[in-house]
From TrEMBL:
Keywords: Hydrolase, Metal-binding
CDD domains: CE4_CtAXE_like (cd10954)
Keyword Hydrolase: yes
Protein name, entry field: Polysaccharide deacetylase family protein
Amino acid sequence: MQFVENKQLEKRVAKQTTLLLNQVKHEQEKNELATEEKVTKKANLVEVSYPPSEIPSIDGFDFDQITQESMKKMEKKLNPKDPAVLVSHLAINHYTEQLAAYEVAVDLYLWQNKSEEFIKTKTKTTKPVLINHSTGQLITSQDLIKKEENLLGIQQVIQQMLLDQAADPNLILDEVLNLPRLSWDTPMTYTEEQLVVQLPQNKLGQTTIALPYAKIQPFIQTDLVKPEYLIPPTQALDANQKYVALTFDDGPSPVTTPKIIQILANKGIKATFFLLGQNVKENPELTKQIFEGGHELASHSYSHPSFNTISKEAVKKEVIDTDKAIFEATGCLPKILRPPYGAVNTDTAKVVGKPIIQWNVDSLDWKTKNSAAIQKVVKNSVASGGIILMHDIQPATAEALDQVINDLKAQNYQFVTIQELLEQKMYPMHQYFGQFDQRNI
Ligand SMILES: [Zn+2]
């Protein structure tokens, strides 16, 4: 009688297998990708796989191979006497509109003697392979970074990170500032949490750096990154408020700059100082004092030449020497630069590699050297989102500043630094004349 019973059981298993396969197939038809069905029967085990029929080939992702390996591992743990069904399919997980993860999931259905049906008891999922949904391929550095200006921006982030990570940053400062530029040929590896960049040939003894996406967020296509690895957008400036940024060039000067920062401190205002490297070198303590006052420190070249009249090598030296002087005084590299006389062209902007900050209100303090005239010109020419140009080396500016601020306050202006005014959306190869006026170079 044993024989008959087994036959009957076999029939019931076969019937349930058919039901299960129909159900699985039905589920599979809902998948966004077209698939084929492959069924293999070995004694008590049925293996079903749904290789996608349309996806382009992706490096390091072979559905059939992954399926075979996974199934083999799961098969080993099964009792050959128990009826079982293994189903392998491609699971697509959308993290953003552009970012999808492909993973192979293998489900194990085991025969239940009591209820006489198959129950899913286990799912084994392989490591997700992240795909650019637009191309259907692995994400490349060019997909992620897109523009050369972003490569330049990332270069600056890397330089500051290398210095932050160093036991003694001063020992590597020259190497870091002279680090060759990243290019589209620079090997970079996209991973879920960070971008791993192979550093260009250098004497630092460091070959790669891992960049968390939040650190390079302004310079990447954020819809190619899982949202959990990004910083949520910060509170934007209030569209109903009027903002201005006070900027001071050519300092620091031991005579007039202390007066200026005292007035700013009294008024509770943060400004942006475009420093000359040679003056920083002579006044490192004063530079540190400006920095510690919460002001933004920026580069205005080392010795104030017009960038359009000197060689690219000379421009590079002006930038690097100033970065070095400011870093030695404060531990921070300046992120932005105002070229002397506002003189910049495509070639020099590329050499500079930082966002270029111009102005749209010229106090003419360098020309009039007269407190009343400075007050008048600022009061009359300011507009919302303005960047006001002044010079902290001018005694008349120190004299005028208190009243300049009072006049702006009377017109309901709020005072912000350049970073705040432009909400950190500043890119190399671009110049900014005000909150609402940015131009390509
Ligand atoms: Zn200047």
